[in-house]
């Protein structure tokens, strides 16, 4: 009788473990999906910001270029054209960021760094552990209670 009950409890326990593992997996997949969607939204906002900034900077660049060119012709001083060069670099960067392949090149470089220079990504004192977080929490808690006295 005890053997049958024990066998039934073992089967139920195994089913319970499988159910918990399945739920943990689903929760992890949902968490990964949510984090990816948040990352995508942040990236979309950054690209949108670049495009909006490009509109304003492009207008500024065009007006400045026209003004400096007119001034250089009127005063016969080609030195007035010098600011166009650095402004052109900034404009090109913004154009590449907003509509070009900058994001793809950055992703490729990041993948290369992760593959061949992984040691550059290490956190100081290593990855936080439960014990290190708990130790810091206890220290802060004991300091707060000490200051209250």
From TrEMBL:
What's the protein called, per UniProt? Plasminogen receptor, C-terminal lysine transmembrane protein
A Pfam match: DUF2368
What is any one of the record's Gene Ontology cellular component terms?
plasma membrane
Q: Any one Gene Ontology biological process term? A: positive regulation of plasminogen activation
Q: From which source organism is this entry?
A: Echeneis naucrates (Live sharksucker)
- Transmembrane ranges? none
């Amino acid at each position: 009788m005890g053997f049958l009950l024990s066998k039934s409890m073992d089967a139920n326990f195994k089913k319970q473990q499988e159910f918990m593992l399945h739920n943990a997996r689903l929760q992890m997949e949902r968490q990964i999906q949510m984090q990816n969607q948040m990352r995508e939204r942040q990236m979309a906002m950054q690209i949108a910001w670049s495009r909006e900034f490009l509109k304003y900077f492009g207008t500024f660049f065009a007006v400045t270029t026209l003004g400096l060119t007119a001034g250089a012709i009127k005063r016969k001083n080609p030195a007035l054209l010098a600011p166009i060069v650095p402004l052109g670099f900034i404009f090109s960067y913004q154009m590449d960021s907003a509509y070009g392949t900058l994001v793809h090149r950055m992703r490729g470089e990041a993948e290369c760094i992760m593959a061949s220079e992984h040691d550059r990504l290490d956190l100081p004192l290593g990855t936080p552990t439960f014990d290190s977080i708990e130790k810091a929490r206890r220290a802060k808690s004991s300091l707060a209670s000490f200051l209250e006295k």
